[in-house]
Write a structure and sequence with these properties.
Length: 481
């Protein structure tokens, strides 16, 4: 019995060797599938840009959150929408979704199609024209953006993998996609799901420079997505650049220069914040010079003098009113938020009355507020230093900087056009610092400055969740020997 089993085993092994030797690696024939042109009569096409209008009409007229296209028994009556693929999941930054826009250039509408299948890029490559059969599908909002899928109550779920070819028809046309130039201020919900180009942008220097330079999404605190601050060199405003923690390039360090980024305009998971997402990092071209302000860096001084050139602890301010008097210039460059006097107890207690600015629930697309000291002549004495205290109530992605200018003319409206240099030696509270504490700036040395000039605190934020932080400022003293 044992001998019979042994001979069976030898026979099976011999057969396996023979079969394996007949087919070498990479010699399998890959079937070439010819993709045919899709011919759908124009009267059965529903433009992508019309899907949003139809959904809004359904919401207004019938109060429904989604709109379902009921299937007809006669397939010749099926309705379709058509678009060009702008997503690519090859690098893992998209998953089980296909993004289509209605034209290869100058698009006016885009839609996300949820599909329970991955990867999709091999069949639905970038630029491929695709027809989507609407009958049996539902249009709604998923994470705030226009989406097609299968109805699930008042939401939209993924099309099953086995059913995707019932709904998606590939055309033989593959077009070059031309990114649509756009600025942060031009972001709208109607422009989500479009392939866009951002010009003259850079990552925030606190994230892209120095010893603590960040990766796209490989930091310990990154969960699901890594969110980085992308700045406009033209307007000084910011938006969120988002990368999945499943992306192949999540561990790549952020580029340090400025330039262009081609990507997709979308919203975050909660549908509250505009995000830019790329298919891969080949469309990030940040090789130019950064547009950060120049620096005036005298370092930190070991001591401070006893001659007070300027000081304000804000105790004479009226609570809840804009900071005024004492030579201050309180200027709103963008938005509605201004520096105000503020007092609070509890965990995040103020230092008596403090100066406060924040954009939480402001509704501002951009919030930029300046608080500028009176002019100081640095030639009249020696050993000038600056000291102040800062705290925050969750800074989020909003920023506070302390700056110096020698060429501002004193006219508030001219503040943005003056040359302002950063005082990098000054410590300003960060988002990671405990919100209940106050932090000293250090003895910021100003003795290398000559002539006259102004010191300013500049706040940049917005009413959007990731940039709506609050800062407090107090105990400002400029002294000399």
């Amino acid at each position: 019995m044992k001998a019979i089993n042994f001979y069976k085993l030898v026979t099976l092994l011999f057969a396996a060797v023979v079969i394996t030797s007949c087919v070498q690696d990479d010699e399998f024939d890959v079937p070439q599938i010819e993709i045919q042109s899709v011919d759908i009569p124009q009267d059965r096409i529903v433009e992508i840009s019309s899907l949003r209008a139809l959904l809004e009409q359904e919401q207004t007229t019938n109060g429904n959150a989604v709109l379902t296209f009921e299937a007809d028994d006669d397939p010749s009556n099926d309705r379709f929408t058509v678009g060009y693929v702008i997503s690519n999941d090859a690098q893992g930054n998209f998953f089980e979704e296909l993004l289509l826009q209605n034209a290869p250039s100058n698009p006016s509408g885009g839609v996300k199609v949820l599909i329970d299948s991955s990867p999709l890029f091999a069949s639905y490559e970038f630029g491929r024209k695709v027809f989507v059969r609407l009958d049996g599908l539902t249009v709604g909002l998923d994470s705030g953006v226009l989406t097609l899928g299968i109805r699930d109550g008042n939401g939209v779920e993924k099309i099953a993998d086995g059913a995707k070819e019932d709904f998606l028809l590939r055309d033989d046309e593959v077009e070059e996609i031309t990114p649509m130039p756009i600025t942060f201020s031009e972001f709208t919900e109607e422009k989500t799901n479009l392939y866009v180009r951002l010009n003259n942008v850079q990552f925030n220097r606190a994230q892209a420079l120095g010893d603590d330079r960040l990766t796209f999404a490989g930091e310990p605190e990154d969960e699901f997505d890594g969110e980085r601050i992308l700045e406009s060199c033209d307007s000084g405003t910011s938006t969120v650049f988002s990368t999945s923690t499943f992306a192949d390039f999540k561990g790549v360090l952020l580029p340090q220069g400025s330039g262009t980024i081609d990507g997709i305009l979308t919203l975050n998971f909660f549908g509250e914040q505009f995000n830019i997402v790329v298919n891969d990092i080949s469309t990030i071209n940040l090789d130019g010079e950064r547009c950060d302000p120049e620096e005036v860096d005298c370092g930190l001084a070991s001591t401070t003098g006893s001659n007070v050139l300027f000081s304000d602890f804000f105790e004479t301010q009226n609570e809840g009113t804009p900071i005024s008097g004492n030579g201050w210039t309180n200027y709103i460059e963008a938005g509605t938020q201004t520096w105000e006097s503020y007092t609070s107890g509890g965990t995040n207690a103020s230092l008596g009355i403090s100066a406060n600015i924040g954009s939480f629930m402001s509704g501002d697309a951009s919030s930029i507020g300046w608080l500028v000291t009176p002019q100081i002549n640095f030639d009249n004495q020696d050993g000038e230093t600056l000291n102040f205290m800062t705290s925050n109530s969750f800074a989020d992605g909003s920023t506070l900087e302390v700056l110096f200018s020698s060429d501002w003319d004193g006219v508030p409206e001219n503040i943005p056009s003056a040359n302002w240099s950063i005082l990098p030696a000054a410590f300003i509270v960060g988002d990671d610092d405990f919100f209940g504490d106050w932090f000293e700036s250090g003895n910021v040395d100003l003795s290398c400055i000559s002539g006259s000039g102004y010191i300013a605190w500049k706040y940049v934020g917005s009413g959007e969740e990731d940039f709506d932080g609050t800062y407090e400022l107090d105990e400002i003293e400029i002294e000399s020997n």
